[in-house]
Each structure stands twice: as structure tokens, then as C-alpha cells.
Amino acid sequence: MGDSTESVLRVEGLKAHYDSTDGFLDRLLGRSRTVRAVDGVDFELREGETLGIVGESGCGKTTLARSALRLIEPTAGSVYHRGEDLTALSSPDLRDHRRDLQYVFQDPLSSLNPRLTAGDVVGEPLEVHGLATGAERDERVRELLETVGLKRSHANRYPHEFSGGQRQRLGIARALAVDPEVIVCDEPVSALDASVQAQILNLLSELQAEFGLSYVFIAHDLRVIEHVADRVAVMYLGEFVERGPTETVFEPPYHPYTEALLSAIPEPDPQWERDGVRLDGTVPSPIDPPSGCRFHTRCPRIVPDADYDLSSEVWRGVTDLTLRARETDDAASVTATRADPTETPWETFDGSVREEFGLPGTLPDADAEGALAEAIATLHDGRVEAAAALLDSAFTSPCERHHPAEYELDTGHGIACLRYDDGFDEESETLADGPE
Question: What domains lie within the chain, and their CATH numbers?
Fold first, then answer.
């Protein structure tokens, strides 16, 4: 880990959007579908440090890394390497920076040409960048193989003749061949068993110390990130929700999403007991991301509306009911009870809805209870769309209305959550809700 604070790589406002419109007719009718895979991300990587980027699958981590190195073209934003904007460079000029910016892929087998020997895989970058040819190239290749823990004789083997861990070592040797400053490690150990993971992580640490490398390390396993990273950025649906020094991010206070990820880390202790944070549902589609805070559709600590006297747990249940009603046009599908609601006694249907969504028999707030009872009655009549509209108008969290800024809790530690807004009242769990 270097002591210098100089930024070797800086990303500002990076966006990567894709057009997923289906077919000619959709385009003709103007039915555009834009996937917002990365949606305005900033970060910097300092000399000799490891920046960990963590989040569930589908959050945009790999797209962020690849667009930052222009392996795919970003939609907007800038990426600076040593002060030079890579997004403004032509292909020939960008090629000069490729030597300093390398990539280790998640699946080493799919990223290695099966027709090339290990020696050719590692030696190809040397030839492409004019660094070595002939006998000098061959000797350099053998040195690199030894550096990553392989044998010199392995130069004559093909990728399929290596184990998973050996193939990952081969991918690392290829990245090292051009003497880079930065290596992006895209989940380099996720497909390996635990013992091999440790070997690869230790290898990366040793190489960083020996060559002064800077890493962007992508993972969904926080145990790995805690082991390797100096700083951590937690990503959800194309945005960073928290970032800071590793030891700070792993200790409270933290973003509710970070809290859920941390609670999912298993402990190797059969007597271990801890109440984990359960996240219902999956990551929403980046084609139509939720309004406000993108995590509000799953957040266990959603902020209730100040107009009602309801806890965040009750508000979570009402929000889940609202989301279910929005997503279906079949009243029977709103609850686990698939019988026709109109043929089910009102009391039975009302109880089933409340039980499934963790709602009490009567909400403690009279106005909220009246709105909920009316919505459930509308569902009982089979009018799902009308019920969803009633729930939408009566129960809208500030988290749905406002996109949270990044609030700085400490030096270098920022969290994008309304619970850290100056207007949030911890005791009542409400936000002084101003204009959007």
C-alpha cells in the first residue's frame, strides 16, 4: 500500500446505457428501452492501493469496470489516467494507455484463446506493444510464469490443460506482461474453491507489494473485500450507495444495503447465532429503475411518511403490498391465497393480506388504517389497479420521492441514504420532507 495520495485513475460521472429495444417495429413506434447499467458514478484510485467494488450480481460492477477502461464505450462521463481523459482519446492514443491499464477476467478459461499455448497467451501483449520478440520474449514469458507461481515448462501447455487456479494465474501473468500501473480484477476468485482463493489473493497482494500495483477489485463476497481492499465502494443498481475506508464501511453506521450484505457473511461456527437482514425480492430492472432511492423497493429500514405514526417495519409491509399490486393485474396473485378474492369472505381475505405482508390486524394510526382497509376492500372486489392507485396515493415514503445525496459521515466515508439527512429524526423515524 502506497503512502502517496496521488490519483492514478479518476472516474467522474460515468454512465453506461444500452438500447435494448426489441426489433424493428419497436424502433419504428418509438418504444425505446434503455438499460441504465451504470448511472453517474465517481471514484478515484490512488497509487498502490486497492479499491474494492462490491454488490449483488446485476448491480453494474463489471460494466463499470469495463467502461472505465473503454473496453466498452461509456455513454457519458470522463475517465482520467494520470490527468489525461481516456474518453477523449482516439484509438491509437488510447493504445498507449493500455499498457498501464490491464484487466483480469472473472472466467479465465473464456478469456484465454484455446488455440494458443500459455507462452503465446502471455507473450502476445509483449509483441503487440513492441516490448520483446524472439528469445527475449520467450525468456520474459518464462519469468512471468514463475512470478505467478507456475513452472517455466508450463509455457508449452494449452489453457484446457490447467486447473482453474492455474488458469487464473495465467491471466494474471498476461496482465503483468506489459508492466501496468493499474489492474482491474473482475471477481478473479469467485469461481475458485476456498483454498485456491486464498492462494490467488495472497499472490495478488505479493505482486502489489513487489511492483507497486493499484487494483480495482470487484467482488460480491465481502469477506474477500475485507481482506484485500483499502477502500470500499458499495454498488446498487448502477450507483454507489456507500464508500469509504474498509474498516469504516465494515463498522456501523452504514447504509441499509451494506448492512444486509454484511449480515449475509457466514461465520464458521456451528454455535453462531445472529439475526440477519433479509432482503426480499431481486434487484429491480435497470431498464426502469425505481424513483427516489433505488433501494427503497427492498430496504428493511425504509423511512415512513411523517403524516402517519407507523414504524419502518409496518411501512415496509405496506410498501411491499403496493409493489405487488402494481406488478399484477390479478387480485388472487396479490397474496399467497390463490382463491378468487370475490368468493372469499371479507374477513378471511383481509386477514390473509395482512398476514402475508406482516401487517397488524389494525394499524396504530387511524388514518393509515382507513386507507389500508379501503385498498384491501378494493382488492377484494378484484380491482387491482384501483387498489394500487389508492395505496400509491396514501403511502408514499420520502425514499420514493427523493434521490438521496451522498452524506459525508466522516473523512472519506459517504452514505447515500435519507436516514443521514439533517432532517431525519431518529426517534420518530421520520424525515422533515421538503420539496423534491
Answer: 7-21+31-261 (3.40.50.300), 312-396 (no CATH)
To 5 degrees, how large is the angle CA 222–CA 227–CA 232?
A: 55
- Distance separating alpha carbons of residues 157 and 136, to the nearest angstrom: 20
pLDDT at 159 over 60: yes
Dist CA 249 CA 145 (whole Å): 36
> CA neighbours within 13 Å on the CB side: how many for 109?
8
Determine the Cα angle at 166 with ends 160 and 170, to 5°: 85
CA atoms within 13 A on the CB side of 286: 22
As given in the structure block, the three cell numbers for residue 411 are: 473523512
Is residue 200 pLDDT above 60, yes or no? Answer: yes
Q: Is the pLDDT of residue 36 over 70?
A: yes
- Integer angstrom CA distances of residue 182 from 217, 333, 376: 11, 50, 56
Closest-CA residue to 417 (of 280, 239, 219, 281):
239
Gap between the Cα atoms of 189 and 252, Å rounded: 27
The residue to which cell 413506434 is assigned = 29
Q: pLDDT for 54-77, tens place per residue? A: 999 889 999 999 999 999 999 999
Please, where are the H alpha helices in 328-434? 346-356, 366-380, 384-394, 398-401
- Structure confidence by residue, pLDDT tens digits, 239-282: 999 999 999 999 988 999 999 998 887 766 666 666 678 787 77
